[in-house]
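User: I'm putting together a small comparison set for a docking exercise, and I want a reference complex before I start. The sequence is below, and the ligand is zinc ion. Could you produce the 3D structure with the ligand included, as structure tokens?
Assistant: Of course. I'll restate your input first, then give the structure tokens for the complex.
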Amino acid sequence: MKEFNNLYLCPRCDSVGELTPSPITCIDCGYVGCLIARHIPHTTRQRWVDLESSDQTWRWDKTLSRKLKHRGVDARLAKEIQKNVKRLFTVFGQHRGEMDGLFPHFMEDYERTTGKKNRQRNSNKGKSMTKRGSQRGALYEGAFLKIMDLNDSFERCPGRIHPDDTRYNFHPDGWYLDGDEKIPIEFKTTKGGNFVSPKMEKYIKQSRKHGRRAKRFDFNSSGYSILIVCCPEERKFGAVVLSSAADDIVPATKHTR
Ligand SMILES: [Zn+2]
């Protein structure tokens, strides 16, 4: 699709426009550092639009909160965050007939934007699985960010934090705002059957990495991080606030420190 090869995607306001030399600046909101856009195939997008319009609401699932139990986290805050995440999915559910307007048409072309190869893509099967997963992820994350925009407790994080710091740069999907503290959010979408405890470990590690780095760069003093996971096919979602105590359950690996 040649007509779609020449576009950028703005991570702050979601607008799409014609590519310019780097750094790409959004014509609509002025954001510097837009992404190179890749079109999401219509049939893929439509499949998820149809799934959402079928009459099933999102259900809170305890897999995550049971595994981690908000250990070492202020109880008032954990409760409040859980309430606000539930609110996001209530709004998501209220719009499930309008997902055609909420799902994005474009996602980041990772390889063209960063110049890096995606590490998981070696076999053909792996390639198509990763592709399907990343398209699903892009659709749901895109819609989720739009819903987050409507809630004052949340904020997007359009760009990588301290990209020039080779060791400690990081990029959460968004922030939860608690007074002066900003807690990084990682948002994940899983395929059916994968909303199970062992599959969460990779996500927990990534979320903890954001927590440690956010504290290092003074976004907060607690070092907390938030992990939100949803499984559209099973209509499940869950969330947990993580502190360094989560490392006892899922230890950090070298590159997530
Ligand atoms: Zn913009």
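Strands lie at 7-9, 16-18, 35-39, 59-60, 106-108, 154-156, 174-178, 181-189, 225-231, 236-242. The pocket of zinc ion is lined by residues 10, 12-13, 15, 26, 28-29, 31 (CB under 6 Å).
User: Thanks, that's exactly what I needed.
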